[in-house]
Specification:
InterPro entries: Aminopeptidase_N-like_N (IPR045357), Aminopeptidase_N-like_N_sf (IPR042097), PepN_Ig-like_sf (IPR038438), Peptidase_M1 (IPR001930), Peptidase_M1_dom (IPR014782), Peptidase_M1_pepN (IPR012779), Peptidase_M1_pepN_C (IPR024601), Peptidase_M1_pepN_C_sf (IPR037144). Its cofactor is Zn(2+). The chain is an alpha+beta fold. The strands form eight sheets. It has an eight-stranded mixed sheet, with no helix packed on it. It has a five-stranded mixed sheet with strand order 17-18-19-21-20, with helices on one face. The longest helix is centred in the middle third of the chain and has 34 residues, at about 380-415. It is globular and about 85 Å long. It binds (3S)-3-amino-4-(1H-indol-3-yl)butanoic acid and zinc ion. (3S)-3-amino-4-(1H-indol-3-yl)butanoic acid binds near residues 261, 300, 378 and 819. (3S)-3-amino-4-(1H-indol-3-yl)butanoic acid binds near residues 266, 299, 300, 322 and 378.
C-alpha cells in the first residue's frame, strides 16, 4: 500500500469549479452522470493530464466538451485513478457516466443502502465511489444535483443547499433538483433518498433570516427526534452569541440512518447521523445518550463554519476542523450543563482513549505526517488532543483574545481551504503574540510530563515553583523539543482559600522557575487547574495533602483530580500487593475523604458521583509499567468492596435519598446528577455480593422506567455471580425494552460483552449468533466485538483465546467494511504495555492479520504500524 506524506502536498493541476450531477437510482443499479467544469491551474504545465479519483465505479462513457471520447483517450493507469490522456484546453467540461451498486456497498463509503434508504458518506474519500472527481478537500466547487428515483420507495429526495425543482416523471418515478450556492469540497457532498418521516421547526437568525429545520428518520422513529431539534436550535443560538456565527442557508436538514461508520457527518445543509447520535426519548435513551445527542448535533452544526466555510487544505490538517469543532462542542455542552462536570467527562475520555494511544506505536502528532488510509486518522489524538490544543490557545489568550483570533481566522480565510499554521497565525496576529513554539503541539506526538518542585520562604513570604517538562520518544521522534505549556496554578492556604490570585504560568523551557511574592503562609499548590494542558503531572504529595485538596480546592476539576490521584495510588499499591501475594489494604484517609464527599449536602450531584467513581481501567493501566489485567481488576474490586464495607450505611442512605419519582421524567442537571450518584452507590453496594443488594439491584432492573437506571442495574447484574438474578435481569431487559429497538439491543449486547463472568468469551460468541445481531451493522459490531475488546479481564485472558477470537472477527468484517475492521485492529495497538506472554500472543495475531491475503489497506496500516 502507498503511504502519503504531508511534506509532499502540491496544488492540483486542475481546479473543478462546478459539479453537475444526475443520479438515477434504480433498485440494484444506479447510474451517475457527472459533469465537471474545470480549468487548468495557472502555472501548471499544459501537458498535465487530468487524473480523477474513481473507485469501484464502472465507467460507461467519458465526454469532453460534449463529445464522447474514444476508449483510447482515457485509462486506469493505477487502481482507483481515471486518467484523461488526450490534450485539454485551459477550460473545459468533462462528463463521465458510471454505474454503481449501492445495494452491494458494505463499506458504507460513497452511496450505499441502509435499511430501506439510500444515503452517502463522502468524508474522507468516498465521493470518488460515486463519480470520478478530484476528490481532495482543496478542490472546492459549486454543486447542482438532480436525483431520480422510484416515487413509492423513495418519496423523499435530498441533497445539499436549496431545493430548486421537483416533479413527477411518469412510470412511478420522480425527481428533485438541489443547488448549493456555497463552493465546497467533495467530502461535504450528500444525497439521501428514502421513505422517511420527519419533524419540522424554524430558527430565526439574529439578522432576522428564517431557517427551515427538518429532521428525518424512519417513520417508526419520528417520536425520538424532539431532543435533537431542541439541541439544534440551542446550538444555532449559542454559536451566534459566543462566536458571532450565523447560519447561512435557508434550510438545515438532518437524516438519521441505521448503518453508519462514525457518529455523524456535517455535509453542507444536510447532516447525516448515526441513529445512535440523534434518536432520544425517555423510555429509550440514557442520560449519556441525551448528552451525546446534544453534543453531536452541536458538533455537526458548528462544522458549518469550522470545517465547511473554512475547510482543510489536505487531510493532514484534519485537526484544523475536528480539534476546533470538538473544542466548540465541549464549550457548548459546558454552557448547557455544567462546566466542571463537562471538563471532568472530557478529561476522562482523553485519559482513557488518547493517552494510551499517545504511548503506543500508533502515536501520531495531532497533525500526522503520513497515512496509508486516511480513515484511520479519525483518532482520539486528532479529535480530543486536538481539542485540548485549541483549549490551550484560549487559556493563553483568554476568552476575548481567543474570540479575536477566531474573528480574524474567518475574516482571512472564509470560503477557502487552509492549514493549521493559518489558524495559529490568526490567533497570534489577532493578539500580537508569538506562537512559534506552540507549533510543537502539532508536530510532536506523546504526552509530556510536567514535574513540579516547590519551595517556600516564610521570611520573604515568597513561594517558588520549579517546573520541568519532558516527553518520551514516539515513533520516528526519539527526542522532543520543549512545548509551550499553559499551567494554571493556585496557592491554597490552611483555611482553604487562595492566598494570591490564580495565575497561568507559561512553561516554555525544559525547566523554569516561577516566583510568587506576598504569600503569607506555606501554601498547598493546586497545579494544572481545569486541566489546562494535556500533560501528566508529577508532584510529590502526601495522601493527607490530596485529601485536603479534595475537600478545599476552589477549582472543582482539581478537587476531583485529587480524589482520582488518591484512588490511583491505592489501586496501584494493591496491584503490587496482589502480585506479591500479600494482603490488599485500603488506607483510612481514602475512606474518610469518600465519606466526606458522600455526606456533602449542597454539592452538584454529578460532581459527587464522579468524585466517588474510580479511574477507568485504561487510565489506570496507562500508569503501570506493565499492565497486569488480572491484578488490576482484582485491585479495583478490592477497593470498591472495602469502601462499601466501611461506608455501607452512607451508600444506602445516598441511594435512597436520590431516588426520583418515575413521573414526570426529568433530564435536568439535578435529575441527571441524582441518577448518577444513586447508581454509583448501587455499584459499590453490589461489590459486597450480598443477596440484599442483589435484590435491590434486581428491583431497579425490573421496575425502573428511566433507561439510565435500567442500564445501570442490568449491567451490574450482567456481571453478577448470582446466575438466577443475572438471567432474570437480562431476559427482562431484552423482552421488555430491547426487543425490536436496535439501539437498546446494542446496550443489551454491550452489557454482556463487558461483563466479568467466567463465560464471557462463549457469551459473546453466542451473541454473534443472536437473530438481532448483524455483522454488517457498525453499531452492533461495536456493541459486541468492540465492547469485548474493552473487557480488560476476558479479552486479555492469559491463554490468548480473546485475542484469537478478535482476529477471527476482524477477518470476517474486513471483507465487508475495512474502516470497521481497522478500528478493531487498533485494540491490539497497545500490546507492548502488557507482559511478555501476552505481547507474544498479540504479536502472533497481528502477524496473522498481515499475512492474510486480501487484507484491506486500512487494517494493514494499523496492524503493521502497531508492530513497529
Ligand atoms: N467529519 C465527520 C467524519 C466522518 C467520517 C470519517 C471517516 C469515515 C466515516 C465518517 N463519518 C463521519 C464526523 C465529524 O467529526 O463530525
Ligand atoms: Zn467533526
Amino acid at each position: 500500500p502507498v503511504e502519503k506524506f504531508r511534506k509532499d502536498y502540491k496544488e492540483p493541476d486542475y481546479w473543478v469549479r462546478n459539479v453537475d450531477l444526475l443520479i438515477q437510482i434504480h433498485d440494484g443499479q444506479t447510474t451517475v452522470r457527472g459533469k465537471l467544469s474545470a480549468e487548468r491551474r495557472k502555472g501548471a504545465q499544459e501537458s498535465a493530464t487530468l487524473r480523477l479519483d474513481a473507485e469501484d465505479v464502472e465507467v460507461v462513457s467519458v465526454l469532453l466538451n460534449g463529445k464522447e471520447l474514444s476508449s483510447s483517450d482515457y485509462h486506469f493507469p493505477e487502481k482507483d485513478v481515471l486518467e484523461i490522456k488526450c490534450g485539454l484546453p485551459d477550460k473545459f467540461e468533462l462528463e463521465t457516466v458510471v454505474k454503481i451498486k449501492p445495494e452491494d456497498n458494505t463499506q458504507l463509503s460513497g452511496l450505499y443502502k441502509s435499511s430501506s434508504m439510500y444515503c452517502t458518506q463522502c468524508e474522507a474519500e468516498g465521493f470518488r465511489r460515486i463519480t470520478p472527481m478530484l476528490d481532495r478537500p482543496d478542490v472546492m466547487a459549486k454543486y447542482k444535483v438532480r436525483i431520480e428515483a422510484d416515487q413509492k420507495s423513495c418519496p423523499v429526495l435530498l441533497s445539499n443547499g436549496n431545493l430548486v425543482s421537483k416533479g413527477e416523471m411518469g412510470e412511478g418515478r420522480h425527481f428533485a433538483e438541489w443547488e448549493d450556492p456555497f463552493p465546497k469540497p467533495s467530502y461535504l457532498f450528500a444525497v439521501v433518498a428514502g421513505d422517511l418521516g420527519s419533524i419540522k421547526d424554524t430558527f430565526t437568525t439574529r439578522s432576522g433570516r428564517k431557517v427551515a429545520l427538518e429532521i428525518f428518520s424512519e417513520h417508526a422513529n419520528v417520536d425520538q427526534l424532539d431532543w435533537a431539534m431542541q439541541s439544534l436550535k440551542d446550538s444555532m443560538k449559542w454559536d451566534e452569541e459566543r462566536f458571532g456565527l450565523e447560519y447561512d442557508l435557508d434550510i438545515y436538514n438532518i437524516v438519521a440512518v441505521n448503518d453508519f461508520n462514525m457518529g455523524a457527518m456535517e455535509n453542507k445543509g444536510l447532516n447525516v447521523f448515526n441513529t445512535a447520535c440523534v434518536l432520544a426519548k425517555p423510555s429509550t435513551a440514557t442520560d449519556s445518550d441525551y448528552e451525546r445527542v446534544q453534543g453531536v448535533i452541536a458538533h455537526e452544526y458548528f462544522h458549518n463554519w469550522t470545517g465547511n466555510r473554512v475547510t482543510c487544505r489536505d487531510w493532514f490538517q484534519l485537526t484544523l476542523k475536528e480539534g476546533l469543532t470538538v473544542f466548540r462542542d465541549q464549550q457548548f455542552s459546558a454552557d448547557m450543563t455544567s462546566e466542571a462536570v463537562k471538563r471532568i467527562e472530557d478529561v476522562r475520555i482523553l485519559r482513557a482513549a488518547q493517552f494510551p494511544q499517545d504511548d503506543s506505536p500508533m502515536a501520531h502528532p495531532i497533525r500526522p505526517e503520513s497515512y496509508i488510509a486516511m480513515d484511520n486518522f479519525y483518532t482520539a489524538t486528532v479529535y480530543n488532543k486536538g481539542a485540548e490544543v485549541i483549549g490551550m490557545y484560549q487559556t493563553l489568550l483568554g476568552k476575548e483574545g481567543f474570540r479575536k483570533g477566531m474573528d480574524l481566522y474567518f475574516k482571512r480565510h472564509d470560503g477557502t481551504a487552509v492549514t493549521c499554521d493559518d489558524f495559529r497565525a490568526a490567533m497570534a496576529d489577532a493578539n500580537g503574540v508569538d506562537l512559534e513554539q506552540f507549533e510543537r503541539w502539532y508536530t510532536q506526538a506523546g504526552t509530556p510530563t510536567v514535574e513540579a518542585k516547590a519551595s517556600y520562604s516564610a521570611d520573604k513570604q515568597r513561594f517558588e515553583l520549579v517546573l520541568s517538562q519532558s516527553c518520551g520518544p514516539s515513533p520516528g521522534q526519539p527526542t522532543k523539543q520543549p512545548y509551550h505549556i499553559p499551567v494554571r496554578v493556585g496557592l491554597i492556604g490552611k483555611d482553604g482559600k487562595d492566598l494570591v490570585p490564580e495565575r497561568v504560568l507559561e512553561l516554555k523551557e525544559a525547566s523554569q522557575t516561577f516566583v510568587f511574592e506576598g504569600v503569607k503562609e506555606e501554601p498547598v499548590v493546586s497545579l494544572l487547574r481545569g486541566f489546562s494542558a494535556p500533560v501528566n503531572v508529577k508532584l510529590p504529595r502526601s495522601d493527607e495533602e490530596l485529601a485536603f485538596l479534595m475537600a478545599n480546592d476552589q477549582d472543582s476539576f482539581n478537587r476531583w483530580e485529587a480524589g482520582q490521584e488518591l484512588f490511583t495510588r491505592s489501586i496501584l499499591a494493591n496491584v503490587k500487593a496482589f502480585q506479591d501475594g500479600k494482603d490488599m489494604e485500603l488506607p483510612q484517609v481514602i475512606v474518610d475523604a469518600a465519606k466526606r464527599t458522600l455526606l456533602l449536602e449542597d454539592i452538584d450531584k454529578s460532581l459527587q458521583a464522579y468524585a466517588l467513581t474510580l479511574p477507568s481501567l485504561l487510565t489506570l493501566g496507562a500508569k503501570m509499567d506493565v499492565i497486569d489485567p488480572d491484578a488490576l481488576v482484582a485491585a479495583c474490586k478490592f477497593v470498591k468492596e472495602s469502601m462499601a464495607k466501611k461506608l455501607r450505611a452512607e451508600f444506602e442512605t445516598a441511594y435512597k435519598s436520590n431516588q426520583l419519582p418515575s413521573e414526570p421524567f426529568r433530564n435536568d442537571a439535578d435529575a441527571v446528577g441524582r441518577r448518577r450518584i444513586k447508581n454509583v452507590c448501587l455499584d459499590y453496594l453490589m461489590a459486597l455480593k450480598e443477596d440484599k443488594y442483589t435484590k435491590l439491584c434486581l428491583d431497579q432492573a425490573l421496575q425502573s422506567t428511566a433507561m439510565t437506571d435500567l442500564v445501570a442495574a442490568t449491567s451490574l447484574l450482567a456481571g453478577s455471580s448470582d446466575e438466577a438474578a443475572r438471567k432474570q435481569a437480562l431476559e427482562n431487559f431484552y423482552e421488555k425494552h430491547a426487543k425490536g429497538n436496535d439501539l437498546i439491543l446494542c446496550k443489551w449486547f454491550t452489557m454482556q460483552a463487558m461483563a466479568d463472568v467466567t463465560t464471557s468469551l462463549s457469551d459473546v460468541g453466542a451473541l454473534l449468533q443472536h437473530p438481532d445481531f448483524s455483522l454488517k451493522n457498525p453499531n452492533k459490531c461495536r456493541s459486541v466485538i468492540g465492547a469485548f475488546a474493552g473487557n480488560m479481564k476476558h479479552f486479555h485472558a492469559a491463554d490468548g483465546s480473546g485475542y484469537r477470537w478478535l482476529t477471527d472477527r476482524i477477518l470476517d468484517i474486513d471483507k465487508m467494511n475495512p474502516q470497521m475492521s481497522a478500528r478493531l485492529v487498533s485494540s491490539f495497538s497497545t500490546f507492548r504495555r502488557y507482559d511478555q506472554k501476552r505481547q507474544a500472543l498479540i504479536k502472533a495475531e497481528l502477524e496473522r492479520l498481515i499475512a492474510t491475503s486480501g487484507l484491506s489497506r486500512d487494517a494493514y496500516e494499523i496492524a503493521s504500524k502497531s508492530l513497529k
